[in-house]
Description:
Layout (H helix, E strand, L loop, with lengths): L1 H14 L4 H25 L1 H7 L23 H14 L1 H6 L4 H11 L11 E6 L27 H8 L4 H14 L6 E7 L8 H16 L4 H15 L5 H16 L5 H10 L2 H7 L6 H11 L5 E9 L6 H10 L3 E7 L3 H6 L6 H13 L3 E8 L6 H13 L7 E6 L2 E2 L4 H7 L7 H14 L5 E4 L9 E3 L6 H11 L7 H4 L12 E8 L3 E9 L5 E10 L1 H6 L10 E9 L18 H15 L4 E4 L6 H6 L3 E3 L2 E5 L8
Parallel strand pairs: 1-2, 2-3, 3-4, 4-5, 5-6, 6-8, 13-14
Antiparallel strand pairs: 7-9, 10-11, 11-12, 12-13, 14-16, 15-16
Helix pairs in contact: 1-2, 2-3, 8-9, 9-14, 18-20, 20-21
Amino acid sequence: MEAVLLDIFLALRTQGVLNGRQLDQIIRRHNKLQANAQLSSQASGPSQASQTGISHQNSMPGTPSTPKTARYRFAKKELLPFYLHIRDTDHERWSSWNLDEELEEKLLNLLRVKPRRTASGVATITVITKPWSCSGICLYCPNDLRMPKSYLSGEPACQRAERNYFDPYLQVSSRLKALRDMGHITHKVELIVLGGTWSDYPLPYQLWFIKELFRALNEGSAQQQNNDARHALYRRCGLSNEEDELERRVEPLQQAVNRGELGFNDAIVQLYEQDPAWICASSMQQATMQELEAQQKANETAEHRMVGLVVETRPDTITAATLTLLRRMGCTKIQMGVQSLDPAVLRLNDRSIGVEQIQSAFELARIFGFKILGHFMVNLYGATAESDREDYLRFVTEAAYQPDELKLYPCSLVEGARLCSQYAHGSWKPYTEAELLDVLTADLLVTPSFVRISRMIRDISAADILVGNKKTNLRQMVEHNAEAAEVTIQEIRHREIATSVPALEDLRLINRSYETTVSTEHFLEWATPDNRIAGFLRLSLPNVAYVEQHQANLPIRPHEAMIREVHIYGKVARLHAAGEDAQHLGLGRQLIEAACTIAHSEGYDAVNVISSVGTRLYYRSLGFEDGGLYQKLRLSTQAMPE
């Protein structure tokens, strides 16, 4: 392995850069040398093996020696973990390679796997809460008893969660290691907490779950030791994370649920809330707000800082009290399952949520400063292609809604969902591919420039989908359709600069404003000449009359503006490191200055920011002061530091 790296270093020093084809040539050359040496060793006997230089000392620790009859092969994905291991554990050997900072950066860029994983500016980690009873009974919802409601055990994030006993610390720790081994910088992390309805879980569990997320980011080198101890603890409780055993455990009850003989919640109570092993584990899964706040304080200066915390819930759970609690936990974004704005469709699909509740949830969440990610589904029971297009247009343009971000899904039928009955009777059927593409293309083309469509499919395995879309490249198909229509796509994700580096002189600042029922919103974006987006800020100017009317339940005063999001694209920046990508051009600071200028000109005397725990130091450096649920800059008495 070291010989391959030394050749790569030499090529980078002499050529400056390497492309993927040149890297493959180096790897193939060494594989050929290894194969020839292996054959020579086998022909010459054991004494020759030592003379050929075949050795497995360059293997990763814990990897057994390759049998003499095997043909060893280097792979690109193995090079970076090996390099990082030597750098972190064998300083003398690493120093002998004589890499400077520039050469190391070139190496990391060359060997990084899936670079778009952190192209949005942060390393995103998804964690799943444990299986729990759900207060909803949606018709289309999966009923996998190994998972929290609406999720399937075959989804990648769910598989990781199950292997880690749904423990938040273990999930974050394992994901950090995986991202690091792929060459990604993980100093800035957004944590996405999924698993049905967050508010359905007991408060001590919620506090423990979030506390452990922060602790996993804070503990760095101590993680592996803690991981081993935590796995042992769950095993002593009697829990298993073996796939076959988990499947056998739930199978009888799963079949009863699938046949409609047993309710999902009844089965969950038997499997988890009344099970001695899970009772043992649950007894340790509780914390206080003081314990959580201590981990938050530590995270302000940790190596891995939480720059975003997202939870998933339903609109009918959104109240001033729940939003206040979420802010105290450090939450900055809320995912809400809306699915439809058609009251008839909501009733047919047993969504016990009214349109008025959806409107109220959006108003409150916006006033509290949260980013709002709405889930919207097409092809629900009772919907038509035409009604879906009309419904979506209302959602992204009417003042009562207008989410910041979207997950736009087609309804798919999975085993165990109660929708199976409607399919069997012929009262529901999936759209044809042409119908689905037509609906989603129309939706994409009417999506405003301030909205980001983060997903168009769920990570559901094709094997789990009985009928419905099974194509994982659905989004690419939709975008191809839209481009063929020669209509410009405005939504954010399509316009992101990703890993490219914009020229500062080419960027222009655009202010796009729009009205909601409770505020005037300003979407400030840095755009390139070809309409790519390098960064943006969401400024909310709350309606003074609304704030005065609801003052008793709100955390802000009249005439206080709110920065709800600041996002700069480009590779994740190392903390305190200089560079040339979009995160180092001062674009965020200039956006904040522009937002403060707008707020002041509109008569607002202060600007709040819904900062994450990991960005508190940054906002303090700009003159924002800690206080309550937000950090605040008083416009009448302060200006941002030079």
